[in-house]
Structures are given as C-alpha cells and as structure tokens.
Amino acid sequence: MDERNNKKSNKKILIVSAVLLLLVGAAVYLLFFAPSGGLQDAVKKVVGDVLDFAIRDQGPTGEVATTTRPKPGPPLPPAGIQRLIQLTDFPVLGPAFNRDQLRIRYYKKDGGDLYESDFIGTIQEKISNITIVGLAEVIPHRDTERAALLYLDKDTLKGFLHSATSAIEALPDNIRSFSWSPDGGRFVRVMRGPNGADVVIANGDGSNAQKIYSSPIPDITAEWIASDTLSLATPPSLFAQGFLFTLTRSTGALKRIMGPEFGLMHIWRNDGARLITTNTPSNKNPRPVLTLRGADGALLKTLPITTLPSKCAWSKTNTYLFCAVPRRPLTGFWPDNYLRGEINTEDNLLAYNLETDRYIIMLSDHAFDMTDLVVTDDDRFLFFIDRRDGTLWSFRIRE
User: Fold this and answer.
1) Which of 154, 230, 277, 359 has its CA 20 to 30 A from that of 24?
2) Cβ 169 vs Cβ 182: under 8 Å
3) Are 106 and 92 in contact, with CB atoms under 8 Å apart?
4) Are 314 and 270 in contact (CB under 8 A)?
C-alpha cells in the first residue's frame, strides 16, 4: 500500500512539475518574445509582483532599458483627465511660451499669422496678422516673446525679427544659422564669408553687429549656449565626419568638443553645462548611439534608447530628458534620410530620469513623428509638432 501511495505521490509531483515548467515557459515567451501588448504587460505585472523578479523592462525599440524594476517617473495625472490634445488643424512653426507660461505661441506656416493657445485647447487667438509667403523657419526665444522668421523669396533666404505684433528689423539675406542668447538680449548669426563662414553677434534689435570669428567651413552652424560661450557645429551626415566646437566670445578661444564622428548631432542643456549627442560607429553601422556628455565633450554615460537629439527636450530642472523614440528599428541612412524628409518615424514619448537611469513610456498608441518638443518649466505640459502634417499637440505630463 505504501509503495502504491508513493507511486501516486511521485506521479502527482511529476504532473505538477510539468505544469509549472509549461507555465514558466509560457511566461518567458510572453515576457521576452511575444509582441508587446496588454497580455504581455499583465504577465509582467503578475510575475514581477508575486515572485518579485528583477524585470527587464523592454524599451520602445525592443532594447533592455533597465535591469531592475523602474523607479517612478513624473507623477501622472488622475485617471479620466485627457492627456493628449490637438491644438491646431494646420501646420505651424516655432512653438514657444508667452512670458507667464500660461499659453503657447506659434506661427501658421501658410501665411505667417501668429497664434496663441491655452494648454488644453479651449482658447485659440490670432494675435498678429502678417503675410509671409514661403515661411521656412521660425527661431523663437523661449522667454521674451520674440522670434526670427526666415522665408524664401525665389532662391533667396530672407528674414526679419518679430516681436508679438510688429517687425523689429530686417535680417541680412541668406543667413546660414541663427540663435538667441540665453537672455534674449542678443543673437548670433552665421553668414557666408569670402573664405568660408562669418560668425556675427548683434543686439536683439539687430544693431551693433560684430564679426567675432571666421571659419573655413562654409556650412557651419552656431548656437549661443551660455553668456560667454557659443557652440559651432558641422552638418550631421552618415557619409561625412562632423565636428563640434565651443567658442569663447570674450577671448575668441576655439575648443574642439567632439569629432571627427559620423552622424554627429547634439542638443545642449539649458545652462550649457551638459549635452546629449548621437554618432554612428561607422557608415556601415548606421544605428545612432545616444550619449550624455560634459561641456568638454567627456563621455558621462551611454543612454539605452535609440533616437536623435532633435527629438528630445531637457526639463527645466535638468532631471528629466523627454524624448520621442522610434518604435521600429532605424533603417536606411541615418540621420540623412530623416533630415531630408524622406522617411518618417512612429514614436513613443518617454521621460528619462538622468539621475536614476530609469524611464517611463508616457505615450505609445499614436503614429506621431514628433519634433520641436518644448516643456513647461514645471514639467506639467509638453508640446510637439507632428512632422507628418505639421500640426501642434499638447500632452499633459502630470497634474
């Protein structure tokens, strides 16, 4: 009898073990190999909560984002609050906030009229009637309600400075790049010179223009990143190695920060003390590598997400990096194909905590190709342009 009971007990153990193995196998498949979705997320939650596993949370491009359970990101708004709102049904350029950051301003691409909306789409007002045919680019200053507008007149790129309701000053023709100083009181522009390019600074109304540097590189661009520091960069390409420099305005000292690198792109932090960069290992491996670097170009960390710096925005506190990350692996010649407008992406929107190296995906169920991201100082709202149709959208990050 004992022998028979032992056989039955052993049989039950074998059956239970087999069932457990099947369940574990199914869980492993759903966790790591099945397409991402509600079932996979549910299994992750159950397995993680019950067994307290260290979940390897997959990122938007299928990469491992963290080896431990992600720490909380920005506090989410209560359930029932609409987080995503379309602000325009027409293409826009140059989104930026008004002075008190209660509304967002933008220029209508067709015609150039200046509009202002609240953050939730209940108010939209036209605050300036200007007629611009061929509006190509708007470079707003974040805090002063001023902008530089560039437009095509046949084959000539023309421009002027605009302040809310009136033009301030015409700009010289064929500006190569334009950037406001951090306080908005001055700006830097790059012009084609006799031996390359001239870097010129001027007062905010265009007066007192002074050439401070001449570069042998004709297509160099300039950014004003700190009170006494400019950034100079060559155009990014997978087929030509690029460089990034800083130029000290008071002394004229030029320092190489990065390069030569294929596909070199960057976005500076608000205070110019850090920057996010991408480069590609070679033109045979066109997958951009996203990194955090110091102002001297020193590598601080490699970030486990694949996107371009132009799809990111720093938080005012510099704690978070908000990025639009393509869901599918990048194909083709990056960044060239994308910058020329030959391909579009479908992006997830995420908040990456640079202190904890954890991120949360905030938006993943739309086919946006996000660009021109801007974030309020309190990290409550984020705005972006959908590059597919040029429309402006608002996203509530937290309550």
Assistant:
1) 359
2) no
3) yes
4) yes
Measured CA to CA, the distance from residue 322 to residue 30 in angstroms comes to 28
Distance CA 339, CA 316 (A): 27
Q: pLDDT, tens digit, for every residue of 285-306?
A: 667 889 999 999 999 999 999 9
Please say whether the dihedral angle defined by the alpha carbons of residues 300, 224, 142 and 115, taken in this order, is positive or negative. Answer: negative
C-alpha Rg value of the chain to the nearest Å: 25
b/e code 347-362 from CB counts within 10 Å (16+ = b): bbbbbbbbeebbbbbb
Rounded Cα distance between 75 and 397, Å, is 8
Q: Is 317 exposed, middle or buried (0-12, 13-18, 19+ CB in 10 A)?
A: exposed
Q: Ramachandran region of residue 208, left (φ > 0), alpha (ψ -120 to 50) or beta?
A: left
Ramachandran bin of 353, using left for φ above 0, alpha for ψ from -120 to 50, beta for the remaining angles: beta
Q: What is the DSSP letter of 165?
A: T
Going by C-beta distance under 8 Å and a sequence separation of 6 or more, which residues neighbour residue 44? 31, 55, 57
CB 156 within 8 A of CB 174: yes
Q: CA 166, CA 71: separation in Å to the nearest integer?
A: 48
CB 325, CB 346: distance < 8 Å: no
The helix/strand count (H/E) of the chain reads as 3, 27
**What per-residue confidence (pLDDT) applies to 12?**
45
Q: What is the DSSP letter of 164?
A: T
Residue corresponding to tokens 């437009």: 151
Which tens digit of pLDDT belongs to each residue from 351-391?
999 999 999 999 998 999 999 999 999 999 999 999 999 99
Dihedral sign, CA of 249, 250, 256, 257? negative
Conformation bin of residue 121: beta by default, left when phi > 0, alpha when psi is -120 to 50: left
Q: Are 102 and 109 in contact (CB under 8 A)?
A: no
Name the residue among 99, 139, 106, 137 with its Cα closest to residue 124. Answer: 106
